[in-house]
Amino acid sequence: MRKFTSLFLHLLRSGLAKRDEFFIPVEAPPPSWFTAVHCQEYFSDFVSGSLDEKRMRRIGLPWSPQLVRRTLVEAAGTVLSAQLACEFGIACSLGGGTHHAHHNFGSGFTIFNDVVIAADVVIKEGRASRVLIVDLDVHQGDGTAALASARPSKDVFALSFHCGANFPFRKETSDLDVSFERGAGDDEFLSKLREVLPSVLDSFGPDLVLYLSGVDPFEGDKLGLLNLSEDGLRERDLFVFRECTRRGVPVSGVIGGGYDDDVDKLAARHGLLFESAAQVWREAEGWGGRGVRRRESSEQRQQPESPQERKGDLGGGMRLERLESSSKLESLTSSPAANVSISSPLFSEKAVGSFVTPAVPAVSAVSTPLPVEI
């Protein structure tokens, strides 16, 4: 998608990230991540190009090897972002939010459900025991609802805010659904969010929040039926990050849906997620997720290794490396081949100012075009 590249460039130009602050996973995601959530036959048929025309038509995208690469590494970016959030507190992904994908079929331009895959991976790795998915995209995450409710351990809670008149027209039942009438705006949406989210955070008690932001509730979105302003979207994102950090709960954001003929304007709108995360990070003075919750019991603890110092094995089958060379940057901005997940310190020194504590920077996971072998 062009918006991935545009958003990557927007983050660079806005000063939220610098070229030498990016990291990329250097290995393909293991099939077991996908088959733990999706049907083995469905996974194999998609990867091999064997899905029949009817199932591809339901997805809404033509099959190609490039689509396979993009799909797999976009999910890997969401997993990486979740892993980094568990370790450093706040993370965001430039891609992600494929919430219409079900156990054995894809729908609505989505093939595999990256947020449920990420939740499953971090739970199995022992990074979290309970994961809350906060889905504020204008469309209900029907695939997420079905997959979360099917988990016997009930360790994943799906919260969805959406327009009831919008796709999908046959809704699934999330753990909690909040449906809005067509045309609902900032006041109605934000009032309900302020009422519901704190209650869910306190009652479910997650170890990690996966936040699917989505900018399709925007008043000018091509496929949205709500009327949130850009200020409303910003306030929404700020509220989610603040409520999580106040409780010491790591939060990982993915961009979700957004549709506009002007890709640069769309990218800037998606950039609100990163800008909001940066602001909350500054307010929290270097909140570090898991580490903060340990601080009271271990004042002399060693700070976790920062993303800038990190190279090699992140754990859980994920390897990453720094993106430093200009040749790699050129391939990011020019190659249409595939998407690769990139983790990045979210806030450069320019954006934050001087650090007054040795706190670990927050991290983002960013998907951008880059040729990879899968």
From TrEMBL:
Cited Pfam families: Hist_deacetyl
UniProt keyword terms in alphabetical order: Hydrolase, Signal
The organism's place on the tree of life at top rank: Eukaryota
Basic and acidic residues bias locations: 307-318
Name under which the protein is recorded: Histone deacetylase domain-containing protein
Organism the protein comes from: Chromera velia CCMP2878
UniProt-listed InterPro entries: HDAC_classIV, HDACs, His_deacetylse_dom, His_deacetylse_dom_sf, Ureohydrolase_dom_sf
Keyword Cytoplasm: no
Annotated spans, Disordered: 289-318
GO molecular function: histone deacetylase activity; hydrolase activity
PANTHER family: HISTONE DEACETYLASE 12 (PTHR10625:SF19), HISTONE DEACETYLASE HDAC1-RELATED (PTHR10625)
